[in-house]
Write a structure and sequence with these properties.
Layout (H helix, E strand, L loop, with lengths): L7 H8 L3 H22 L1 H10 L5 H21 L3 H19 L9 H33 L1
Helix pairs in contact: 2-3, 2-4, 3-4, 4-5, 5-6
């Protein structure tokens, strides 16, 4: 085995047909769950938007639910993956700046946690870019 090859077990996992779907499901699972929870608990969805200063909260709650459900469905079905990934990427970036403004917080535990959450959101955006890239390469091969 040269340095460029992965171990057989890794190769087997990566070649396993369902792994692509499972990886995409793992990436979008929090958004799917969030959208379903908000859709089934409208008062809490409104309260969340009001908490973050989004006005009118009904508009932003409905938009959030739509993005959190439509984006994952596009990614999971393999249709317009670029659009689903783009929707979730932009949504995640806006959420990171809205909910995790660590630079505006005094030093301390809250700032520490917001910093971590902010950069976790940036990592998710990278995941959405990768999903779109892989889907596009697969489309071009087909």
């Amino acid at each position: 085995m040269t340095g460029a090859e992965e171990p057989r077990i890794v190769d087997a996992i990566l070649e396993w047909r369902p792994i692509w779907f499972l990886a995409r499901l793992a990436l979008v699972s929090a958004y799917l769950l969030g959208g379903l929870v908000k859709a089934t608990d409208w008062p809490s969805a409104l309260a969340e938007q009001a908490h973050f200063g989004m006005s009118p909260p009904g508009f932003w709650a409905a938009l959030t639910i739509g993005v959190e459900l439509v984006g994952p469905i596009l990614i999971l079905t393999g249709r317009f993956v670029w659009l689903g990934a783009g929707m979730l990427g932009v949504f995640t970036l806006l959420a990171a700046f809205t909910a995790n403004a660590f630079w505006a917080m005094p030093d301390g535990q809250e700032s520490f946690m917001a910093t971590n959450a902010f950069f976790e959101h940036i990592g998710l955006i990278g995941g959405f870019i990768l999903v779109a890239l892989v889907a596009e390469r697969e489309r071009r091969r087909a």
